[in-house]
Amino acid sequence: MASAAPILVFVMATLILVVAGAPQVEGMILAAMLGLSIGMIFAQNLGDYCETLFTLMANRTAAVAIVCWLWAGAFSGVLADCDLVEAIVWVGWKLGLSGGLFTLTVFVCAALFAVSLGTGLGTVLGFTAVMYPAGVVLGANPAAVMGAIISGAAFGDNLAPVSDTTIVSAATQEADVGGVVRSRLKYVLLAAALSGVLFLTFGAGKSTVDPSVAEKILQENSDPKGLPMLIPAAIVFAIAFSGYHFLLALTAGILCASLLGPSLGIFDFKDLFHVTPDGAIEGSLVGGAMGLVPTAVLTLLLVTSIGLMKVGGFLDELMNWLDKGWTKTVARTEGAIIALISIANLCVSVNTVAMIAVGPLANVLRKRHQIHSYRVANLLDTVSCSFPYMLPYAAAVTASSAIQREVAERYDFVPIISWSEELPFIFYGLTLFPIMILAVITGFGRRHG
After folding, report:
1. Counting CB atoms within 10 angstroms of each CB, which of 3, 42, 132, 218 has the fewest?
2. Does residue 191 register a pLDDT over 90?
3. Which is it for the CA torsion 379, 381, 384, 387, positive or negative?
4. Are 165 and 158 contacting, i.e. CB atoms less than 8 angstroms apart?
5. pTM, whole model, 2 decimals?
């Protein structure tokens, strides 16, 4: 039991951060450090304990995730600085949509953007500032528009090969990213289709604002020049989906974006990488790659904490207890995995961190019951991108509220939607979680291996 002290301290400290309204990765790093430090109290041999920490940090799962994050971060950094949001907004504007059809378009565009960049939070930040006020004046239901933005963000986070959740779910189950994405399509496309129907049906509202205001907003915040940057995103998705190594796909995407952007005048080459007069190194490649470093550090610490439970024998005892009491069949094992990842998401609030914590345990369970790595990776990721995007303390929800307040200061006709008003319209989360429960009960999509 003492070997579980580091992870238990981490969970408790993280819960305190969540309650305090500061569920930041930097704080979680300190929480993990605190847990590992407290573990020294229970160590029979302090020197052996410290050496074990260093050995466990050499875990291949963590190494794979960190390397993939560096490449994925660099790629996302390039696309994030090429006005891709404005380009997608331009397409929606030119289609002349309104009401429920506009809300559906917001969902599709947000999903497309999130799949390209692999960032749910970035999608919420970029789209809320432009699409939310436009939706109000174009006769869409304001709460439905916000639900469409958050749903599109969750879809992209769930499916994108460059998403940190996709990378972690694959790495913790020792699976390839391309295969995981291919096997995930049947779940996410079904949830997306149901969500699309719901947005079209319930997305209409009533506008009391002059349509010329919407025209002005869209004109100021749309620009088609970034559209060609969808090509590198399509290349990454196609190569990864075809079964080639994920690093090859990302390298091809980075190279394509780095050549295409400057050649078409979308951005200058120096925007990718340059040295400032004071000797600092800046640029979208640098910023993107370094942006996930805190998460990488946290990954090392959490993988080490889980490793201590295995070395100390607690993990085996836990698995034996689960086998005796719950995980007697494959379906019940999958149900236990869903329960574990759901609890982790409720406690941690950052879905990537939740998967890092639960992934190694799920990997042991799947091997005991010969469940395919793709299947368990999908259970972890789909659950983590469903109801967690609906929690009042989720990053996407809190970010949407902050941006709404900023938009309301610029446009007096824009309402600020409360979480309770927004919640019923986050259709992707509302549909995906039940789909995964049914998949476990019925065996839909189950594979053995």
Report:
1. 42
2. yes
3. negative
4. yes
5. 0.84
